[in-house]
Amino acid sequence: MSAPLRIVFLTPGTGGWYCGACMRDNALAKALHAAGHEVSLLPMYLPLQLDEEMLDCARAAPVFFGGINIFLQQKFPLFRHTPGWIDGLLNHPRLLRRVARHSHMTSARDHGELTLAMLRLEDRRFGKELDKLCAWLAPAPPDILCLSTALQAGMIRELKRRLGGVKVICCFQGEDTFLDGLPDPYRDACWRALAARVRDADALVSPSAFYAGLMQQRLGAADLTISVLPNGINLAGYAPLPVKPQPPVIGFLARLSRDKGLAVMVEAFIHLRTVLGHPDAQLHLAGAATAENLPLIEALQRRVAAAGLTDQVQWQTNISRDGKIAMLSSLTLFSVPAIYPEAFGLYVIEAMASGVPVVLPAAAAFPEIVARAGAGVLVPLNCASAGHRPPPPDPLSAGAPASAVSTTQGWAADGSGQDARTAVARASCPPPFSLSHPAATKLTASDAPAAGLDPRALAQAWHELLRQPDPLRAMAAASRRAAEECYDVSVMGDRFVALARGLLGAKSGQDARTTPCPAGDPCRPTS
C-alpha cells in the first residue's frame, strides 16, 4: 500500500460570494483527506466562501497574502515593515469580508499593479507575506503544493527554493478573462510574466482540453504539456426527482453577470414565452451577485416586467448549497449561455448530478462535457434559425486507450475560434475529442461574435426539447450517469493522486512538465 501524501492547497478566496474554484478545491481536499492523505487548505487574499462544510484544518489557518495588507504594501512601502500585530488586525476575516463587498471599487490600474507584483514576487515587495507562508509550511513541508490558479505562479520559484523537495502543481482556470481585462501596460506585462513563471511548476493542469489549448496559445508556449484534470463535485445530496413538476422550469445557476450570459438567458425566455408559444414555462435564475452586478440585474428585471413576465421569473442571489440542490432538482432544463471561453463550468456537472438535461453553447469546454455524456444539446453560435444540434454518438468507448496528444477547438484568444493544439495527458472520462470528432465543432470568426449565443437559438433549443419528453428523459438519465462515472470528486481525487505520485516518482533531473503520461488512462491508478 502506498504511503499517504502530504498535500497543501493554496486557494484564493472571495470573501463574500461563492466561487467555483474555492468549492472545487475544498471538495477535492476533503476527498483526499477521507482517502487517508494529510491535506491542508490555506486561504489566500480573502477568506473562502463555501456552500458546504469546510475542511476542518482550513478553519484554523490564517489568510495568507491578506488583501488589505498586500494592497497597502503595494501602495505604501511603510507597510512592508509593520509589526505582526498590525498585520494581524488588518487580516481579520471579518474585516476582509467587509472590504470584499467593495472590491469592485478598486481601480483597474490597482488590479494590474498587484497582479504584476505577485507574478514578480522576487522583488521582495511582498517578501514579508512570503515569509509568513513559508514559516507556516516549513515545520512539515508538503510533498505536493497545489496552486489554485496560474496567477499564483510568481511564488513557485521561491517556495521550491525554501521548501526543498516540494512538487508544485499549478492549475489553469479562467486567467485569460481576468488578464485581458487589465489596462495597458499591465495586460501585456502580466501575460509575459505568466508565460515565464508557469514553467517553474512541476505540473500544469487544466479542467478541459479546450482551455489547455487556449492557454498554450495565449502564452505562446507550444512546448508546454498541460494535463487535463476535469473538475469534480461532492455528489452527496444531489438526486434527480422521479417526476418533474409542471409547468416546466428552465434554470440558470452561475454568477449573475453579463459574461455568464444572464442577458441572453432573459431574452431567450421572453422569446420562448411570447413567440414560440410556451405560455406556462417559468425561469429560475440563481447565483452569486456582487454590487457591480446589481445594475444589470435591475435592468433585466425591468425588461422582464415590460414583457409582463415578472411572476414567471424567480431570482435568487448567493444561494446556499441546500437551496442550490433543491433548485436544480426542480428544473426541466438548464442553461448558462456564457459569452466568453469558459474553461469548464462547475455548474454544468451540478445540473447533471441533479439529472437535468443541459442546453449550452457549442463552444469552449462545453462539448467535452455534454457530447460525451449525451447529457443535452449544443447550440451553434450566432445561428438563430438553426435550432439545436443533438450531440453525436461518441466513437470512443470509456475504456478505449487515449492518445497523449489531443487537438481541441473553440473560442481562440481573439474569439475567432482558431485551432488550438496542445499536448495533454488525457483520462478515460472526458475529454476524448479530436479534429475528426464531429462534436468538436469548428467555429469561424463569423460564427463567434462577441455577443456569443443568439437568444432566439437558445429559445428554439428549449422549445424543441420541451416538445420531446422521451429524449428529455433519456438525457436526464445520461446526465446523472455521467456525473457519477466521471465527475464525482472521488474520481478527480484518484486522478490527482496519480498525477502527484508520478511527479514524486520521477527520476532525478526528469522534467515532469514535458514527460508524456503512459498510454491508456493516465489519470487513474492501474492497480
Tags for this entry?
disordered C terminus; alpha/beta; single chain; 6-stranded parallel β-sheet; 12% strand; 38% helix
Can you tell me the residue ranges where pLDDT is under 50 for at least 5 consecutive residues? 383-451, 507-527
Helix content: 25-40%
Number of strands: 14
Radius of gyration: 23 Å
Arithmetic mean of pLDDT: 80
Strand fraction: 5-15%
Distance N terminus to C terminus? 10 Å
Commentary on this structure:
With 527 residues, this protein is of the alpha/beta class. The chain is 38% helix and 12% strand. The chain contains 19 helices and 14 strands. The strands form 4 sheets. The protein has a 6-stranded parallel beta sheet, sandwiched between helices. Helix 13 links the parallel strand 8 and strand 9. Helix 6 runs parallel beside helix 10. It is globular and about 65 Å long. The chain starts with 5 loop residues before the first strand and ends in a 23-residue tail after the last helix. The C terminus is likely disordered.
What's the helix and strand layout?
Elements: E1 6-12, H1 20-34, E2 38-44, H2 56-60, H3 67-75, H4 84-90, H5 93-100, H6 108-119, H7 127-137, E3 144-147, H8 156-163, E4 167-171, H9 175-180, H10 186-197, E5 203-206, H11 209-218, E6 226-228, E7 249-253, H12 262-274, E8 282-287, H13 294-306, E9 313-317, H14 321-329, E10 333-334, H15 346-353, E11 358-361, H16 366-373, E12 376-379, E13 405-408, E14 420-423, H17 455-466, H18 469-486, H19 489-504
Parallel strand pairs: 1-2, 1-3, 3-4, 4-5, 5-6, 7-8, 7-10, 8-9, 11-12
Antiparallel strand pairs: 13-14
Helix pairs in contact: 1-19, 6-10, 12-13, 12-17, 15-18
